[in-house]
Design a protein that fits this description.
The protein is an alpha/beta fold. It contains 17 helices and ten strands.
């Protein structure tokens, strides 16, 4: 690694096998809308602070709306090259997200970066290129899966847009790739970069814990469903018209309620089609990513959303509208892991920091059980599993939950543990994180992720050596993917981490809050 610290360190090799690298997500707008790397001195100072804290690397969104903003195939990577060079100088590794979505409208979005204007212009004459709900509202956050293979973009399909972008990235960033700076490419596959439908979006009035809405009413997906239903001998079947609206509860709808449509032959057919479209979408774009980065010493990754609300209700409504067909008797996540395994890709999951006890009881949230199910499914399919927190946390409780999930059965003093996460990314770098008390706790968290070992620049010392990316394995037939829907018991999970972050001040503050709750804190806890 160029310019990485060379000071000698001593390691306990058996403990080093338990080392989980920690990355920090950079601010969303580190590269401005007009493609400028602003405030480099501040970023340099912050990156050096991260490096001194033992952080292994950073993650950054590489926005499609910025680099290809001037016109089709008119790429400008210059600002990102400046940023990458700085990251390299600071001795950090880099995870790059190919962000093919709009920034703005999701929880935590502080800036707005739209899709390229020339793509939005096409949407003016053909608004069906965007995801659409039953009322006809368009979502301009990401192109609908329905146009993946439609040559509507100056002769190119949506998949070709993504593919060309990634090929250009490889061409213009080859020196950074060859130097070992860029260790993985997370391929954006939907809104917020996640493999899902934009079923819950604040720009259309959704608020937590609404069940969300299906997003398949553009003319392209509607036609595909009609063709599929007709092929199955049911030309009379249409898309759901009884699944409620964004902020409904499951029980208030016919589709998700007791003995609802989701349990009928028609409902099962729709949900299988809807979720399979998502699987195929991810598979096709990851195949293009594999071609683009073939032979590079890096890994591919894909992110899946942690839809934890209504997880403990029978219909799992919020997961279903997002495209995760997950029920008590059907695993909606292991097929995704199996698809990723064909591309040697990392399964990146969210909400690692959340505990059931912190959530609203009436929303039947189950973040802990969800994380256990998803991570176990990934490990069973023998893919590398990574993760991140969904919301910024600066307290020991959040960090300890992330530590538990990274090594659910604790450290192994005899080498590699049976279950260990490939890496954890902290969301995100901010002035708040770097405040004295917050940063002190964070540094302890990093040390505990590293099992009290020093920062280790050599990936091979903790079993993370990266060889040249191989060609994806042959495409799996849908029957093989769906075989993975069979539910399996999750792996055992400890009650708490054996590498705890202790925060006496935080414990005291929580105790005071419980004893003397003020109205603003009560209100805040219901968000």
């Amino acid at each position: 690694m160029a310019n990485a610290p060379t000071a000698p360190s001593t390691y306990n090799e058996k403990m080093l096998a338990n080392y989980v690298p920690v990355y920090v997500m950079l601010p969303l707008g580190v590269i401005s809308n007009d493609n400028v790397f602003e405030d480099q001195p501040k970023m340099e100072k912050q990156l050096k602070e991260l490096r001194a804290a033992g952080v292994d690397g950073v993650m950054v969104d590489v926005w499609w709306g910025i680099v290809e903003s001037k016109g089709p195939k008119q790429y400008d990577w210059s600002a990102y090259r400046s940023l990458f060079a700085l990251v390299q100088e600071c001795g950090l590794k880099l995870q790059a997200i190919m962000s093919f979505h709009r920034c703005g409208g999701n929880v935590g979005d502080e800036v707005t970066i739209p899709l390229p204007q020339w793509v939005l212009d096409i949407g003016e004459t053909d608004p069906d290129i965007f995801y659409t709900n039953r009322k006809g509202n368009r979502n301009k956050e990401y192109l609908t899966i329905g146009v993946d293979n439609q040559p509507l973009f100056h002769g190119r399909t949506a998949v070709q847009l993504y593919s060309d972008n990634m090929k250009s990235f490889r061409q213009h960033m080859s020196d950074f790739i060859e130097a070992g700076l860029i260790i993985d490419i997370e391929v954006g596959l939907g809104p917020a970069g996640e493999l899902r439908y934009p079923s819950y979006t604040g720009t259309q009035g959704w608020v937590f814990p609404g069940i969300g809405e299906f997003q398949c009413y553009d003319k392209y997906l509607e036609a595909e469903f009609k063709e599929a239903a007709t092929g199955a001998g049911h030309p009379e079947w249409g898309l759901p018209d009884n699944a409620g609206e964004y902020n409904d509860t499951p029980g208030s709808t016919e589709f998700f309620g007791l003995n609802g449509t989701y349990m009928t032959e028609k409902g099962k057919f729709f949900l299988t089609w809807y979720s399979n479209k998502l699987l195929n979408h991810g598979d096709e774009i990851l195949d293009e990513a594999n071609r683009a980065f073939l032979g590079c010493k890096l890994k591919l990754a894909a992110k899946v959303a942690g839809i934890h609300w209504w997880y403990k209700s029978p219909s799992h409504a919020a997961e279903l509208t997002s495209g995760y067909y997950n029920l008590k008797d059907r695993d909606g996540y292991r097929p995704i892991a199996r698809m990723l395994s064909r591309h040697y890709a990392i399964f990146n999951f969210t909400c690692l920091e959340m505990r059931d006890s912190e959530q609203r009881a009436d929303a039947k949230c189950g973040p802990q059980e969800l994380v256990q199910q998803v991570l176990s499914g990934g490990w069973r399919e023998e893919v590398e599993v990574a993760g991140e927190n969904a919301l910024s946390r600066y307290d020991s409780n959040g960090y300890n939950q992330m530590l538990l999930n990274s090594r659910p059965n604790g450290i192994s003093r005899e080498g590699l543990p049976k279950q260990i996460m490939y890496g954890v990314t902290y969301l995100r770098l901010s002035d708040e994180l770097l405040k004295d008390k917050n940063f002190k706790i964070f540094k302890t968290f990093v040390k505990k992720m590293h099992t009290d070992q020093d920062y280790c620049a050599d990936l091979g010392m903790y079993n993370h050596q990266i060889g040249p990316l191989e060609r994806s394995k042959p495409k799996l037939v849908m029957e093989d993917l769906l075989e993975a829907t069979k539910p399996m018991e999750p792996f055992p999970w400890g009650e708490e981490t054996d590498m705890k972050v202790d925060d006496f001040d935080g414990v005291l503050a929580n105790l005071i809050r419980k004893l003397f709750p003020c109205s603003s804190e009560i209100k805040g806890s219901k968000k």
